[in-house]
Amino acid sequence: MRSKRVLLKLSGESFSNEHCSIDEKCLFRTVEEIKLALSSGVELSIVVGAGNIWRGAGKFIERVTADKMGMLATVMNALALNEVLLKAGVKSVILSANGVSGFVKNFNREQAIDYIENGYVVVFAGGTGNPFFTTDTTAALRAAEIKAAILLKATQVDGIYSADPKKDKYAVKYASLTFKEALDKHLKIMDSEAFSLCKKTNTSIVVFDFYKDGNLRKILNGEKIGTIVEA
Q: What domains appear along the chain, each with residue ranges and CATH number?
């Protein structure tokens, strides 16, 4: 499977280790994987998460405020990623759902597509701009808006299983699934809003192990890596 325009969903884990929320080695490794993947000629956009910096509300912070803090944290990750991409010679730009004056540009769909068509990696930050929505939902939304053929969900596992493979040695890995099969089997691929949006917009999802070197490029070159979910 080869697609010209794809959206990559990166979690905060792509930027961090257990000792540091934004780790130089992890960040440079992520950029190297992206740069390698671009050699396939793909149009690539990225949605960044922020779990490395902020994981949501505690008892003393109300949900709406906590989600706003998370949106700001994605901007921090986007700034770090964009900086290293530029230093690696990759044309890159950040567009944020909620503008942070003096730091990043506001998201505009037409402008985003223009950047993509002119060879930029567009890094989407700020979530959807609204509380109560995850960055998985942001990825599904942005993929639909830019008309990406596929959404690549970078994880630490090599695909979708019938059960947690770390807890169940009999868990079976799926090479491919339809949206209906995933729903019928109650598989937790991403949050329900994100999954529903991908189903509605017919955006295929590939769940893959981003932490195995070269996997991203292999997918973009048409190799069957991870698990694909499609109509």
A: 5-230 (3.40.1160.10)
